[in-house]
Automatic annotation (TrEMBL):
This is Uncharacterized protein. Signal peptide: none annotated. Keywords: Membrane, Transmembrane, Transmembrane helix. The keyword Cell inner membrane does not apply.
Length: 458
């Protein structure tokens, strides 16, 4: 812990309530002090350089782990059959506002639009690099935004690193734009809590939150936090305005489109609740693969035990102390529960039942955002612990957690793609066009996914 971290005191609003102020103004100031940290301080050139190195390292890490390397020459699901093909065959403005699956996807469509400008054989690598870079950017936003709420730099580093190494992000979410919105949702939560020091950063919050709310419809759960920003001074309204503007466009997209459900089976609420415990607390504590083993051996007892572990670790944050940290703990737990509930109920299918074969193999992506929210609440609790004797213990624990995540990503076979390489499918499509066919079919992962492109190929 740095000297700056150890000397940090209670976060307060810009000015304490003054005698004679109206009750409304006093209420606004109390709300701001309870929810938001003090305005952030500016970062020097040395810190900017460290951020750049961290960004490059995180991006490279995602591309070099075994699952990440397979994405450099394989295209995943909607990355090809929806976002890339639309970017290649339709005007950019049209694709940007076209819903898919019942909602808007501004971030994947923007990235795919840029990838479409490159030669087609480069598409797989470009899609993977763009997704990895965006995820690394979200990690840096989490580290920056958490500075006013969490005192411990190691804990903030861990929170940012978990965006990259969290085991719940190993299966379907590695280096693809299709599943990036789970991380976008988590990043938006932190950006809404951030009070940046500079005008350009305030504009950045508006842009980031606009893109987040036009990418994930579940961002709706963050609306109270966005509205609360208007209790802050006007210079901090940028983020709330950007978020609400994007949410309005997302609502129009949802209302103006249709969505085909994964299954005709009605949502099984009791089964969804049990599944949520396994996919949430148990996966956050043990990782999805161990969660499968533990549940199969100990059933619901393992999930309840994991929930109790999370609760015990969060409790210190609820004690008197830094008010925004208490709010962080409560808000993160609420977001974890609500996001998991919405994800399972809206996408319910019998294969998501906790007793289905493979347990967490289907829909593992639904664990990513809820687990990150749960771990944010845990970070608030650990950060609330006092005493210099605990500082080395916290640092060792943080290091072990991150090393375990790294080791797991190198050892797990999950997430590695082994279908038709992108270079091969482009070569096959080129041959088809050379033989005079009007269009060529480009196959990609998972098995059975493909999309047609008119000849000649772009």
């Amino acid at each position: 812990m740095t000297a700056t971290d150890s000397s940090r005191t209670e976060a307060v609003a810009d000015d304490p309530p003054r005698p004679g102020l109206s009750p409304l103004i006093g209420w606004r100031e109390r709300l701001a002090a309870a929810v938001f940290p003090a305005p952030a301080t500016s970062a020097g050139p040395r810190r900017t350089g460290r951020f750049l190195l961290a960004f490059l390292a995180a991006t490279a890490y995602l591309l070099l782990i075994p699952a990440g390397r397979t994405r450099l020459n394989h295209v995943w699901a909607e990355d090809g059959a929806r976002f890339l093909v639309d970017a290649l065959t339709q005007p950019f403005g049209t694709t940007l506002i076209t819903p898919y699956g019942g909602y808007s996807h501004s971030v994947p469509r923007l990235a795919a639009g840029l990838v479409a400008l490159l030669p087609l054989p480069w598409a797989a690598a470009a899609l993977a690099i763009s997704a990895a870079a965006l995820r690394a950017g979200i990690a840096l936003l989490v580290f920056t935004a958490s500075r006013g709420v969490l005192r411990s730099t190691p804990i903030r580093v861990a929170l940012a690193a978990l965006v990259i190494v969290i085991p719940a992000g190993n299966w379907e979410t590695i280096n693809n734009l299709t599943n990036l919105h789970w991380f976008v949702l988590y990043g938006a939560f932190w950006v809404l809590l951030w009070r940046p020091a500079h005008r350009w950063q305030q504009v950045l919050t508006a842009v980031v939150l606009f893109l987040a709310s036009t990418t994930s419809p579940i961002a709706l759960i963050l609306t109270p936090l966005a509205v609360a920003r208007f209790a802050l001074p006007r210079r901090d309204w940028w983020g709330g305005c950007g978020f609400l503007a994007g949410l309005l466009l997302q609502a129009l997209a949802v209302l103006g489109s249709t969505r085909t459900p994964y299954s005709d089976a009605p949502a099984d609420l009791p089964a969804a609740a049990v599944s949520a415990l396994v996919r949430g607390p148990l996966s956050a504590v043990a990782g999805p693969e161990w969660a499968m083993t533990l549940y199969q051996r100990f059933h619901l007892l393992a999930a309840v035990a994991a929930l109790l572990v999370v609760v015990v670790l969060v409790v210190p944050a609820l004690a008197p102390g830094l008010a925004p940290r208490r709010f962080l703990a409560v808000a993160a737990l609420v977001c974890a529960a609500v996001s998991m509930g919405l994800e399972l109920v809206m996408n319910w299918t019998p294969v998501l039942h906790v007793d289905a074969p493979g347990v967490l193999g289907a829909g593992q992506r639904y664990s990513a955002a809820p687990c990150l929210f749960l771990l944010a609440a845990v970070a608030a609790g650990v950060d609330a612990l006092r005493g210099r004797r605990l500082i080395p213990v916290v640092r060792v624990a943080v290091a072990l957690v991150l090393l375990a995540g790294v080791a797991h990503q190198y050892r797990t076979p999950y997430g590695r793609l082994g279908g038709v390489p992108w270079g091969q499918t482009v070569a096959d499509a080129t041959i088809a066009c050379a033989q005079g066919q009007p269009e060529a079919t480009l196959r990609h992962d998972p098995d059975g996914w493909y999309f047609p492109l008119p000849c000649p190929l772009p």
